[in-house]
Design brief:
Shape: globular
Order of helices and strands: HHHHHHHHHHHHHHHH
CATH class of the largest domain: Mainly Alpha
Helix content: over 70%
Largest sheet: none
CATH superfamily of the largest domain: MFS general substrate transporter like domains
Strand content: under 5%
Radius of gyration: 21 Å
Structural class: mainly alpha
Number of helices: 16
């Protein structure tokens, strides 16, 4: 919910903190950067130090980071808090996925559990998008709270929720058997984290700064570091030393292809919320609460798509996901026609966002289930960490690339036509990403063999 609730509030935050376009991109991308860089580390930390212990500590850190975001007075302070939120989430989320792998060893039961997990994400998106639009429009008349801007509540609301989550985890979660052999892969953590940081950060900041030399050097070095990371892991596996990524995961064809599907899908998903929220509020002058209400229909569609796909995929297989991706593509093209009209028909916007949401809901939990459902429990931590890393890195990549295309069309005092052109260019990039999803879905075996020969 944390990403969804922020998306709609971005224009309000930008005005209140006098932030730049790059600052606003980093409100999302900074969170994702901390998330993606430490996800694999977080997953393996749960294996070595205890999933319950790591979950509780990271939830406490996330709650503290949310408080810091809520009281931030400058864009730098806000983005520092967001980065800390992302790092905390990187250690927290893989434990949730790993617990699903542990608690549901049966493949069919695990698939249902993962589908339910994805459906819960849909409910969270509905709540998050509504609150993200509603809370920024709140203005307190009481003198004590007169300086408390409504958008701050989207972060402060995490504080009581975090306290409740920590209490319930301490009371009800059971610790799993720890890995006692070997030591934690520190060199793998350093190389992997530096490679991801070197790739994602310059993609976010480089465009606005005119691609200075340091950004190009970082991009080039990230590929070298990634190569060294892979070699480091392969050598350690041959020596029988514990590694950050267990390459046995890549024996599973559906997991390999599922990572590519996730990469292209998540490039499109969250960048859609960024550019659509900015288009509605800054381009078409729709209020924050009205924008939140529009996105609620997208969230409702997500829930309908997620629930319906659980039944349909059993009968029709991956064809359901392919049709859902096509539905998303058609919906994106209709978005462009709707927003470019001389007079926007808002009655058409509600079913249009609902349609897009149905497509998202049928795709997102299904591709996660396809990628993870055959992974054995002993590889659960590594698999969930790698999948989530690809997911969040793809979201950050989408924010950097698609958001970069969007902002490249805009300047101070941009007109509606400028915003429409920006939206059209950015949406074209998202459609290309969804074409990539279709390609890899086509490559995915219908029955999905567990392992390659």
């Amino acid at each position: 919910m944390d990403i969804f609730i922020v998306n709609v509030a971005l224009p309000t935050i930008k005005k209140d903190l006098h932030a730049t376009d790059a600052d606003i991109q980093l409100v999302i991308a900074g969170y994702l950067l901390g998330y993606a860089v430490f996800l694999i580390t977080g997953a393996r930390a749960g294996d070595y130090y205890g999933r319950k212990k790591v979950y509780v500590i990271s939830m406490c850190c996330f709650t503290l980071a949310s408080l810091l975001c809520g009281i931030a007075q400058t864009p730098l302070q806000l983005n520092a808090g967001r980065a800390l939120q992302g790092v905390s989430a990187a250690f927290m989320v893989p434990q949730s996925l790993a617990y699903i792998q542990m608690l549901f060893p049966d493949q069919s039961a695990r698939a249902r559990a993962l589908g339910f997990y994805g459906s819960v994400a849909g409910v969270a998106s509905v709540i998050g998008q509504f609150l993200g639009g509603f809370l920024p429009d709140i203005h307190f008349s009481n003198e004590l709270f007169s300086h408390l801007d409504g958008w701050r509540l989207i972060f402060l609301i995490n504080v009581p929720l975090g306290i409740v989550a920590v209490y319930n985890a301490c009371q009800h979660l059971k610790e799993h058997k720890l890995l006692k052999t070997g030591s934690f892969d520190v060199s793998g953590v350093v190389l992997g984290s530096m490679a991801l940081l070197g790739l994602i950060y310059p993609l976010i900041r480089g465009r606005e700064l005119g691609w200075p030399l340091w950004s190009l050097v970082l991009l080039g070095s990230s590929f070298l570091l990634l190569y060294l990371f892979v070699k480091n892991q392969q050598v350690k596996m041959k020596r029988g030393v514990p590694v950050l990524i267990d390459f046995k995961l890549f024996y599973y064809a559906d997991f390999r292809i599922g990572l590519f599907i996730a990469l292209f899908y998540f490039i499109a998903q969250d960048s859609y919320f960024l550019i659509t929220g900015l288009m509605l509020q800054d381009g078409l002058h729709v209020s924050s609460s009205e924008t939140g209400l529009l996105f609620v229909f997208q969230g409702l569609g997500y829930v309908l798509g997620a629930v319906g796909s659980l039944v349909l995929i059993k009968k029709y297989g991956k064809k359901v996901i392919q049709m859902a991706v096509l539905l998303m593509m058609v919906s994106l093209l209709l978005h462009v026609f709707l927003f470019s009209a001389a007079k926007v028909d808002w009655y058409l916007s509600y079913p249009l966002l609902l349609m897009y949401g149905v497509g998202c809901g049928a795709v997102l939990p299904s591709i996660m289930s396809l990628a993870l459902q055959r992974i054995p429990a002993d590889l659960a931590g590594s698999a969930s960490g790698l999948y989530s890393t690809i997911q969040q890195a793809a979201v950050a990549l989408g924010i950097g690339l698609t958001g970069g295309v969007f902002f490249s069309f805009l300047s101070e005092g941009a007109s509606k036509t400028d915003f429409v052109n920006a939206y059209m260019g950015a949406t074209a990039l998202n459609v290309l990403a969804l074409i990539g999803v279709l390609f890899f879905l086509y490559r995915l075996p219908e029955g999905g063999k567990g392992e390659d020969a």
